Each structure stands twice: as C-alpha cells, then as structure tokens.
Amino acid sequence: MSFCKVNDGVTFPLFTKSSMKGEHINPLFAELLELSGNPGLTWNFNKFLVSRNGEEVSFFNSSVAPEQLEEKIVPLL
Fold first, then answer.
1. Angle formed at CA 5 by CA 63 and CA 24, multiple of 5 degrees
2. How open is the CA angle 71-58-44, to the nearest 5 degrees?
3. pTM value?
4. What are the DSSP calls for 23-37, one per residue?
5. Residue 68 CA from chain centroid, whole number
6. Cβ atoms of 61 and 46 closer than 8 Å
7. What is the C-alpha R_g of the chain?
8. Which member of 24, 26, 46, 62 has the lowest number of beta carbons within 10 Å of its beta carbon?
9. In whole angstroms, what separates CA 51 from the centre of its chain?
10. Nearest to 48 by CA among 69, 22, 67, 26
C-alpha cells in the first residue's frame, strides 16, 4: 500500500485490496451483498449498514452521503 503513502500521505495502517465482485470476491462482500439483496457493487464508496445483531443489512450506493444515513442508524442502536 505504499502508493497510498506516497500519493496521499496516508500514515495509518491499511488493509490489503480485495475483490468486490467476480470469481475472487472477498467473502465479506459476498455475504453483505447476499444479505442486503443487492446484485453487486458498482463503484467506490458503496455503503452497507448492518444492525447491531447482524440480522438487518441495508445497501446504499455511492451517491448516498454518509450524513443521509444518520436517521437510519438510530433505530438500529
């Protein structure tokens, strides 16, 4: 992940890149997509909202700003 340090000045630990779709999809993304009923991720900054008990999973595409999710988070807490 040195490109993030060089290009963006990132100093915190990063995870390894992982596949969001296809044959090598990360198992976490595969499970979230299945639970949310979403057919697939389309672009950067897609969001999943998972209830505290993990029973409810909602998907929001990249056009939804994080601030727009605030009203959806409160009932899950």
1. 60
2. 95
3. 0.66
4. TTB-HHHHHHHHHHT
5. 15
6. yes
7. 15
8. 24
9. 14
10. 69
Beta-bridged to residue 25, according to DSSP, are 19
For position 40, which CATH number holds?
3.40.30.10
* Residues 25-60 pLDDT 10s: 989 889 999 999 888 787 778 889 888 888 888 899
Counted domains in the chain: 1
> Per-residue pLDDT averaged across 64-70, rounded?
86
| DSSP symbol at 66 | G
Q: Which domain holds residue 48?
A: 2-76
Q: Which residue's entry shows tokens 């409160």?
A: 74
The letter for the amino acid at 48 is: F
